[in-house]
Amino acid sequence: MEQALQDKFAPETRCFGCGPSNPKGLHIKSFPEGDGLVCRFTPEEHHEGFPGFLNGGIIGTLFDCHMNWTAAYFLMKRDNLPSPAPTVTAEFSVQLLKPTPSRQELLIRARVVEAQGRRVKVEGELVASGEVTARASGTFVAVKQGHPAWGRW
Ligand SMILES: CCCCCCCCCCCCCCCC(=O)SCCNC(=O)CCNC(=O)[C@H](O)C(C)(C)COP(=O)(O)OP(=O)(O)OC[C@H]1O[C@@H](n2cnc3c(N)ncnc32)[C@H](O)[C@@H]1OP(=O)(O)O
């Protein structure tokens, strides 16, 4: 199987949601598929909000990181960069449509809906057993040299 973008481009990073090197992180894995990226994530019991259902903040982190990588990968392709652009989250919002079951594999899809310069808008959805349980949208910005995140991935 092809490597996840996080493992291929940023194996040393420690982001709570997507850093492969954070021993306490979620270790999400994003893969290009169709016109966006997909991520499959199986929660653990300590990610629950109530028994059998996922905590809303964890859902937010899944979207935050996966949409961030969607923006970073989009900019890499658009601008012919050697690696994903160093993007940070400027804003994002999540709609929790129904409780998300936590004891199964979940699918998160994301795609770019608008891009201008360094700013990329992304939309995402979380699917459990074929049902969309949450949606999200966000704005991600590629940072310039001098930003605290520059060169830290
Ligand atoms: C080997 C290499 C491997 C590389 C591998 C890379 C992997 C890449 C994936 C990483 C994945 C990590 C995932 C971590 C996810 C976090 O946790 S990131 C941490 C949380 N986020 C932050 O700390 C960001 C804090 N905010 C900031 O630093 C700054 O406000 C920002 C977002 C960089 C923007 O500041 P700026 O660069 O000065 O940009 P600015 O000129 O003000 O705005 C640029 C554009 O964005 C728009 N914008 C700015 N802020 C906002 C906002 N809040 N809402 C809407 N639009 C906004 C502006 O309107 C402007 O739009 P245009 O006028 O150009 O159309």
Automatic annotation (TrEMBL):
Q: Give the record's keywords alphabetically.
A: Apoptosis, Cell membrane, Cell projection, Cytoplasm, Fatty acid metabolism, Hydrolase, Lipid metabolism, Membrane, Transit peptide
Q: SUPFAM superfamilies given for it?
A: Thioesterase/thiol ester dehydrase-isomerase
What Pfam families has UniProt attached to this entry?
Answer: 4HBT
Bilayer topology: Peripheral membrane protein
Localization of this protein:
Cell projection, Ruffle membrane; Cytoplasm; Membrane
What's an example Gene Ontology biological process for this entry? fatty acid metabolic process
One term of GO molecular function: thiolester hydrolase activity
Q: What range(s) does the Thioesterase domain occupy?
A: 52-131
Q: Write down the chemical reaction(s) this protein catalyses.
A: decanoyl-CoA + H2O = decanoate + CoA + H(+); (5Z,8Z,11Z,14Z)-eicosatetraenoyl-CoA + H2O = (5Z,8Z,11Z,14Z)-eicosatetraenoate + CoA + H(+); tetradecanoyl-CoA + H2O = tetradecanoate + CoA + H(+); octanoyl-CoA + H2O = octanoate + CoA + H(+)
EC number(s) from the headed UniProt entry: 3.1.2.2
Q: Name one GO cellular component term.
A: cytoplasm
Q: Which domain of life is it from?
A: Bacteria
Q: Which InterPro entries match?
A: HotDog_dom_sf, THEM4/THEM5_acyl-CoA_thioest, Thioestr_dom
Gene3D superfamilies in the cross-refs: Hotdog Thioesterase
Family under the similarity heading? Belongs to the THEM4/THEM5 thioesterase family.
What PANTHER family is this protein classified in? ACYL-COENZYME A THIOESTERASE THEM4 (PTHR12418:SF19)
Question: Could you identify this protein by its name?
Answer: Acyl-coenzyme A thioesterase THEM4
